[in-house]
Specification:
Length: 140
Amino acid sequence: MKSITYVSSATRLLTPPELMALLEQSRENNVKHGVTGMLLYKAGSFMQVIEGPEDAIDRLFANIKQDTRNHLVITLLDDKIAAREFPAWSMGFHDVTNRDLPLVPAFTTFLDQKHDHRGFGTGGSEAKKLLLNFRTLAAR
Ligand SMILES: Cc1cc2nc3c(=O)[nH]c(=O)nc-3n(C[C@H](O)[C@H](O)[C@H](O)COP(=O)(O)O)c2cc1C
C-alpha cells in the first residue's frame, strides 16, 4: 500500500453544500477502491492524506491533480506503508476554523496563512501530525 499527503489551493471558496458533495463523492468512491484518509479544509486550502492500494492511490491522486476545484497541488509525503493510519475513515473531514488553532500547535502554518511551496517544503511530518491530531479529535 501507499500513502500520499498533499496540500492544495481551492480554485475558489467552496460553499458548505459544495464541500459536502465533494465529500460524499469521495467517500462513495473510496469505499469502492479501498481508499481511506482525512481531508482538512480551511478557507480555500486543502490538506489531505489518502492511503490504500498503490494503483488506486496513483489513479486517485492523478484525478485530484486534474480536478478543477483545486490547483497548486504540492505533494508533502509519498510513502510505501504496511498499515493504514486512518483505517476507519473512508474520508474523515474537518472544516478547520481559527478556534481549532490551540488544538494543533504542531502546524499552525496551514491554519494561519495561504500556503506556498517554500513553506511546505519540509512540512511533511508536521502535516501528518496535524492530520492525526484531527483523527484523534474526531474519534472522541
Ligand atoms: C481536495 C480534493 C480532494 C478529493 N478527494 C477525493 C477522494 O478522497 N476520493 C475521491 O474519489 N475523489 C476525491 N476527489 C475528487 C476527484 O478529484 C475526482 O473528482 C473523483 O475521484 C472522480 O470521481 P468520479 O469517478 O465519481 O467522477 C477530491 C477532489 C478534491 C478537489
